[in-house]
Design goal:
The protein is α+β, with helices and mostly antiparallel strands. The chain has helices at about 25-30, 50-55, 60, 65-70, 75-90, 130-150, 170-175, 180-190, 200-210, 255-300, 305-335, 345-355, 380-395, 435, 455-465, 520-530, and strands at about 5, 15, 35-40, 45, 95-100, 105-115, 120-125, 155-160, 165-170, 215-225, 230-240, 245-250, 340-345, 365-370, 375-380, 400-410, 420-425, 470-475, 480-490, 510-515, 535-540.
Length: about 550
């Protein structure tokens, strides 16, 4: 096949050259837009399918059109200058603005080959429109990223491992560094992490992780140039574009850690108080036995005798010990708080006002309060501590963020007929498996890291609910969060227990069932009752005794 090109004389034809059967499809089906153009007239002699598709023409329609017709008017002067370059044998490659058949604009990179054949040149076109759009989008994305970096509430910086300096830092990062203005930054340039991270074992581990290649997250003590000491959480990421740089995200967790430490200290003191109360209770039982026998001795002995005086001294010592244990209980519990009517909605709001402001930004706190009557009888301080314990556990179960919900509700228990009023704390965190759920109410059981929990929070919650006749319901599964519901029964079931308490009329010779799990106390009380001429039936426990026991009088 041969191509003929019209030159200046209309009847003169110049043969560009024969093309083999292989060259024809290489030209016509080539994905690169190309066409054969007459050197003198700049008219298209032949165009392939890619060129026709680019300009919106058919191949035959392009034949005979000049580059002047296909170019924007602003390019015509350049075409005239280029024609001089063609005559002198200079090649060309550069940007060009062309027009499609439908009037649309094309931005292309054009080039020609002067050696294509006698009287003709081969032009190629590369559409730059999409490339320019991609570049514009990349510039816009870069500007947006720069804005997000500069104005982010998170402290962010680029850190150079080789220079051991902060290469770039946003406004929040400068604030954590204790630098209030651009003038101060110039004073402290270049910024060095070694001057802010307080030296110690945690700092050694931090810098080892910083020089590694893996993503890391660590908490370190931090002292800015303003002298303020903080606790910060640092997350480090390797930069794909530069192996010698790290992207660091720094979060000030000082307030969060202070709250956690205060809660842990409070839990420890509460645990110590409960231990002290338990010890005091057991010791009071021992004192009861000692004082009882001392009193019986005193009654049996003359007051003026040596033995009588010894018995009186024993009683005085027992009373003194009782006062000491009472002081111990008073120190651990401050004062005895009586149950009172409480509105669960008010308690939930009060807890939320105290706790929600301390939540990290990644956790959303939500209240869902019932419009029904949710009043219960409980101790106010215990209710607050129970909800705070549950809310703190929910927060710790969502290290990656989520939603913490405190809700109140009213329901009727279908099994007992009781009206139940509930307050529930739920989260969307890690959840628990069945094995963990089986132990959560055990004292000192915890799934938290060492130093982050005492294992007494849920034990305290269960103990308080048991004291007020309520219970704790737990729903949880791995990966789907947890829900802890405090249930208060406010309406007694129908009927009664079937027992009637006998009225005391001062008669002697009554038969009395004595039940106590302490052998010494059982023996002591039995002797007192026997001295009062009563018949005493002694039992170490309640199992099986009440069914066969009847109240009777002589």
């Amino acid at each position: 096949m041969s191509i003929a090109v019209e030159v200046s004389e209309p009847h003169e034809t110049a043969m560009i050259g024969d093309r083999s059967g292989l060259e024809v499809p290489l030209f016509e089906k080539n994905p690169q837009a190309m066409c054969v153009v007459d050197k003198k007239t700049f008219c298209i002699v032949e165009a392939n399918h890619a060129t026709a598709a680019m300009f919106g023409y058919r191949c035959k329609e392009l034949a005979g059109l000049s580059l002047f017709e296909l170019s924007d008017s602003a390019e015509h002067d350049r075409l005239l200058l280029l024609s001089d370059g063609v005559v002198s044998g200079r090649a060309y490659s550069g940007a060009w603005h062309l027009r499609r058949k439908d009037g649309g604009s094309l931005r292309v990179r054009a080039a020609w080959n002067l050696d294509f054949g006698r009287g003709a040149m081969l032009w190629t076109f590369e559409d730059q429109t999409q490339l320019e759009a991609a570049r514009a989008a990349a510039r816009e994305a870069g500007e947006l990223l720069a804005t997000l970096f500069a104005d982010s509430p998170q402290a962010i910086c680029r850190y150079g491992l080789g220079a051991r300096r902060v290469a770039e830092a946003n406004r929040t990062m400068l604030e954590i560094c204790g630098i209030a203005s651009a003038d101060e930054r110039r004073i402290y340039e270049p910024l060095a992490l070694e001057q802010c991270v307080v030296q110690g074992s945690s700092s050694d581990a931090f810098f080892r992780a910083l020089n590694g290649t893996e993503m890391f997250e660590q908490e370190v003590p931090w002292q800015g140039y303003d002298g303020v000491v903080r606790t910060v959480k640092v997350r480090g990421y390797a930069m794909r574009s530069d192996a010698e740089e790290r992207l660091l995200q720094i979060e000030d967790v000082t307030a969060e850690r202070a709250t956690a430490q205060a809660n842990e200290q409070r839990e420890k003191m509460e645990a110590l108080g409960r231990v002290a109360a338990t010890v005091a209770h057991d010791f009071n039982n021992i004192l009861l036995v000692m004082r009882g026998y001392a009193e019986m001795l005193q009654r049996a002995l003359p007051v003026s005798s040596v033995e009588g005086r010894h018995a009186a001294a024993l009683l005085a010592a027992a009373d003194s010990a009782a006062e000491t244990t009472a002081a111990l209980v008073g120190y651990s519990r401050k004062e005895e708080e009586l149950p009172e009517p409480l509105d669960l909605n008010d308690v939930a709001r009060e807890m939320a006002d105290r706790f929600f402001p301390t939540l990290p930004e990644r956790i959303n706190g939500r209240l869902a309060l019932s419009h029904e009557d949710v009043r219960v009888v409980a101790r106010h301080s215990e209710m607050q501590r129970m909800l705070l314990n549950l809310a703190a556990n929910a927060r710790d179960a969502m290290p990656g963020g989520g939603q913490l919900t405190v809700a109140t509700s009213v329901r009727r228990n279908s099994a007992t007929g009781r009206i139940e009023r509930c307050v529930e704390v739920s989260d969307t965190g890690t959840g628990m498996d069945a094995a963990t759920k089986a132990h959560i109410f055990e004292r000192f059981f915890t799934t938290k890291a060492a130093g982050r929990g005492t294992g007494l929070g849920l034990a305290f919650v269960e103990s308080c609910m048991t004291q007020v006749g309520g219970r704790v319901e737990v729903e949880s599964s791995l990966g789907k969060g947890s829900s802890f519901r405090l249930v208060f029964a406010v309406e007694a079931p129908h009927g009664n227990s079937g027992f009637e308490t006998p009225k005391s009329d001062g008669v002697k010779g009554a038969t009395i069932l004595l039940v106590d799990d302490d052998e010494h106390i059982r023996c002591l009380v039995a002797q007192f009752l026997t001295m009062l001429h009563h018949n005493v039936v002694i039992a170490a426990g309640a199992d099986g005794r009440f069914e066969n026991f009847e109240w009777r009088r002589p």
